[in-house]
Structure formats: structure tokens, C-alpha cells
């Protein structure tokens, strides 16, 4: 077995946190504490051999409960989602500053050895993201600061908090700026899902329901890079183990337009859909890509799973989830009709 040190993962009921807990288990770590605000039945992944805690980390005492006796903390807890959620819940996103601030305080109080914070590409200066030709954003492009309203500003402030806790209290902190993570075991419906999951669901629904059209937010010309979850988990651990003190990009450098993303999912599904563009919907910046020069220099590695490969796996997983929900809804309707 790997080290007996206690590892804490916050946001463990979510997409990235759940995948990180799964990987830590596979690597043989025997003591893992998984923490999330959601009730256990809403966690995407939950393991019986892990200490699972349902706690609201907006409350300081709960942060201390989560951090007690920990050696490493991976703080992935935050209120977040896709662009629709971020644009309509700015105050809620900003309130995540409580979680990171209080987790840092708890880490210092209990002598935690290492602390990882999950930041976001939303910290980058919006003036540098106006072109549809996705500019590759270097780490220094976060300043002068003009972050995404709400979510981006919270992440940028929390990055600074990590820095100052390292400088003032000697806490070992590492920060990665995630660029659009996708994959299985994540949100695919309900409003918090990101573009790859949303498009997979929409294509599946069009195929199943026989209505061969898809709604796309914005013009479809917006460009992004999308990182498969396995690359994200590997990158988190490499950065945690590294000597990289400042926030660093963790994302794929394979940029595509939203229209190209739809093209790939249509090819996977074996279908071609009519496209309807909602120009009034939240669409974020026009272009964003990850400049990976620094991570390649520091780690001799960068996220490298091709988008097509990751989307095939993600599409298959969401398809199974979609069909399982369809069957469950049909059973409920059937039972209800019998009871009439």
C-alpha cells in the first residue's frame, strides 16, 4: 500500500474530485477523506473504503473538521458550472472564496504539509480573449487583472490567498488553472454542465427523439480547448509534487470552435443535425486556449489525450446515463397509469 498519510479531497462528490479520489484509491492510498456539500446519494462517485463526509465548507468549523490530521489537501470545492451557470450566479460563485480561505486557515491550524488549489482559466484578462482565433494564454496574462465576472475574480483572489499563506505561514501551496475539463462521471444535464457534456446530451437527445436539430449557444465560432479528465488528474498530482510555486496552466492546447466540437460529436453519434444558434444565450469569451510552454518546461509533460478520443468515451458514458434515465421515467409513467 502507498503511504498511510491522510489525504483530503474537497469537492469529492463532484466530477474532478470524484475522479481524483478514484485515482488515489487505485494508487493504493489507504487513508482518504472525501468531503462535499452534496448529500451522499448525489455524489457522482462514492467509495465505501473512504471516509466520506457531507459538509458545508462555507462554515469554518466544517473546514477544520475536514482538515484535522490531514497531510495533503486537494481543494476542489467550489460553486461552479458551465457558462450558463457562471453568468447567472456571480454572487454564489464569489462566495466560494469562503471555502478556500477557511480551508487555508484550517490547513495552517492543523499543520497540513501540502495544499492544492484548483483555479481556472477564467482568471485571464478578458481583453486578451476577444478574437475567435483562440489566443494561447500564458500564465502572466492574468495581469493586469480583468477576470471573468464572479467566478474568475473569486479564483484570482484565491490564488493570491494561496500565495500569501505560503509566504506568511510557510504553507506548501500549489495552484493549477484548469481549462475546460470533461469526461465521464460529471454533470451532463440540469444547467451546470459544460459544453462537451451539453453537446453530447443534445446530440443524444436528437438521435433518440428523432428531432434532428441542435441548439448552440452563440455563433458557434467561439474557440476553446478541452482537457480530458484523466489528463487533469495526472496533471494535478504532477503539479502537487513539483517545485512550481506560481499558478500554472493545466489544459489541452488543442483548440477547436464550438461548431467543430459539434462536428466531432455528430461523427461519433453517426448523425448530422440542423443547427439553431441562440445569439442571446451565455457564451463567454470569444477565444481561449492554453499556452503549455511553462508546464512542458517544468514537468516535461502536457495534457495529450486527443479530443476525439476523450469525447468518444464521454459520449458513451452520457448515452448510458441518458438511456437509464429514459427507462426509469418510463417505468414511473407505467406504474402511474396502472394505478389510475
Walkthrough of the structure:
By secondary structure, the chain is α/β, with parallel strands linked by helices. 42% of the residues lie in helices and 18% in strands. The chain has helices at residues 15-26, 60-67, 83-88, 90-94, 97-109, 151-169, 195-209, 229-240, 258-269, 293-299, 307-339; strands spanning 6-10, 31-36, 51-54, 72-75, 114-120, 136-137, 172-178, 181-182, 213-217, 223-225, 227-228, 248-250, 255-257, 274-278, 289-290. The strands form 5 sheets. The protein has a 7-stranded parallel beta sheet, sandwiched between helices. A two-stranded parallel sheet has the order 6-15. It has a two-stranded parallel sheet with strand order 8-11. α7 packs across α9 (258-269). The longest helix is centred in the last third of the chain and has 33 residues, at 307-339. The relative contact order is 0.13.
Key features of this structure:
340 residues; alpha/beta; 7-stranded parallel β-sheet; 15 strands; 42% helix
Could you give the topology of this structure?
Elements: E1 6-10, H1 15-26, E2 31-36, E3 51-54, H2 60-67, E4 72-75, H3 83-88, H4 90-94, H5 97-109, E5 114-120, E6 136-137, H6 151-169, E7 172-178, E8 181-182, H7 195-209, E9 213-217, E10 223-225, E11 227-228, H8 229-240, E12 248-250, E13 255-257, H9 258-269, E14 274-278, E15 289-290, H10 293-299, H11 307-339
Parallel strand pairs: 1-2, 1-4, 2-3, 4-5, 5-7, 6-15, 7-12, 8-11, 9-14
Antiparallel strand pairs: 10-13
Helix pairs in contact: 1-8, 2-5, 5-6, 7-9, 7-11, 9-11
